Amino acid sequence: MTRLSSEATAISNEIIEKHGQLLDKSKQANNWVMDKTNEWKTTVKRYLDVHNPFYEDKQKSFVNDTNALDINCFNLLLEDFKKLAEKNKKRVNSFWDKELSKFKQVTKDQQFSKEKTEEFNSSYTLLHKEREKLVGQLYSAWELEKIAELRSEFMKQLLEQLDMLAELYKSVEVLGLDPGIFFDFSSGSLTSLPFDDIRKWFDYLKSDQGVQSLLDLMGRINLVKQSEKIERINQTFSEKIVIPDINSKEEIVGITLDRDIEHALPSELALMADPDTSILFDLKYIESNLLCFDLEGTSTIDNEFEMEVEQSILEDDTKGPLIICVDTSGSMQGAPETIAKAVTLLMVSKAKQSNRSCYLINFSTGISTLDLSHDFNMENLVSFLKMSFYGGTDVAPAIRHGITLMNSDSYQDADMLIISDFIMAGLPSEIINSMEKLRINGNKFNSLVIDTSFMEHRLKSLFDHEWIYNPQTSSISELSKFEQQMLTD
């Protein structure tokens, strides 16, 4: 197992050397590589134990327990040793044939002395060790060869998957998505992931500037809805207050009786000029009856107080589910269908990234559905998107099914996005009425028109927002509440 551990370490080092950046960015991918390497090590260990052709040779025992001069036992051991060596093109020293002949002669002459018996046992033990050494060499050589072969196969498969994974990570990151939502490593294998299809759609999203602009416009579908409400809150205010400061002598505010010579009135100080009146000054000073200027200053303090006020605030509502209806009818063949499915893949991915429930409806003359609210599986999603009916177009069953969902508890806050060329008949009045009722509850109905003829066949829209994309020119138009605008014109 030590040899396998060394090989597993070498595999990890080689993977880090070639895909270190990917493993640094994705803890999931790093853990997956470690799990796959440990799984390979365990599998190979079990394979080596079961399939090693020298396993039985290793288990054979030719130990001479009697310690007697048993020539048959020696002969069996030597024959097995020679067959094993000959089969694997190894040379056996002729010394052992000579030893066998010598002991046969001893047996024939019946010279069973203690010294001969000890000599026999010593030779037998040495021959036994030679055989064990050969078996060990053959066993290890086969293991090394097989480990190298299995390691090569494992590395080729693992690197192919990591190469595809690294390429897709780059595409996903360019589109602003979390790569972790696309790859489920829990199954232990990435071979079942539809890399080619995902790459095709992502390459289209990256290379077509018109599609990128379209996605920027459509990004508002994934914005958090906001509502305004008035709240009464306690708010703290602060104001400056000026108060008298008796310790500050800044300005004259009056006259006071004191003994402060510094601030005494000039008339009081004049008393000291005449010896007769100086006695009066001294008396007034002792009794603090000198007329003095009364001085004081001011200081400013911060006064804080609370007041209840009304305030308008915006609060985020919980994102509702997203229902996407994708047209796969015959008129959508070619670029329109590729764009529709690429946009759907991106919108579903963004919904998943923001923990927003998502429901897909694939429609032509009939519908097929896929609920991705609880079990997001990339393989199932791509398999669903690859479906194409190539029949006529009837969007009514898809919208009707979506309306039924919106009336259920799980999808009552859902928004709907319909992706189609809209080469179809008008909607029944009962569907239009149902859409209007749901709008009152806050549900939104949006559409993406992928149409080479732009607006030639469209007089009005039934949707809150409609994006029109011309795949031939990559031109984009956006309509907002177009129906209401037409009715007021």
If you had to describe this structure to a student in words, what would you say it looks like?
By secondary structure, the protein is of the alpha/beta class. The chain folds into 3 domains: 2-174, no CATH class; 227-313, no CATH class; 322-488, von Willebrand factor, type A domain (Rossmann fold, 3-Layer(aba) Sandwich). It is 50% helix and 20% strand. It has helices at residues 2-25, 27-51, 55-59, 71-87, 95-108, 114-174, 195-207, 209-218, 266-270, 275-286, 335-353, 378-385, 396-406, 429-440, 482-488; strands at 226-245, 251-258, 290-316, 322-327, 358-363, 367-371, 415-420, 445-450, 465-470, 475-480. Helix 14 links the parallel strand 7 and strand 8. The protein starts with a helix and ends with a helix. Residues 222-228 and 482-489 have low confidence and may be disordered.
How is the secondary structure organized here?
Elements: H1 2-25, H2 27-51, H3 55-59, H4 71-87, H5 95-108, H6 114-174, H7 195-207, H8 209-218, E1 226-245, E2 251-258, H9 266-270, H10 275-286, E3 290-316, E4 322-327, H11 335-353, E5 358-363, E6 367-371, H12 378-385, H13 396-406, E7 415-420, H14 429-440, E8 445-450, E9 465-470, E10 475-480, H15 482-488
Task: Summarize it.
The protein is an alpha/beta fold. The chain is 50% helix and 20% strand. It folds into three domains: 2-174, no CATH class; 227-313, no CATH class; 322-488, 3-Layer(aba) Sandwich (Rossmann fold), CATH 3.40.50.
What value does the average pLDDT take? Answer: 79
| Tally of domains | 3
Strand order of the largest sheet: 6-5-4-7-8-9-10
State the helix count.
Answer: 15
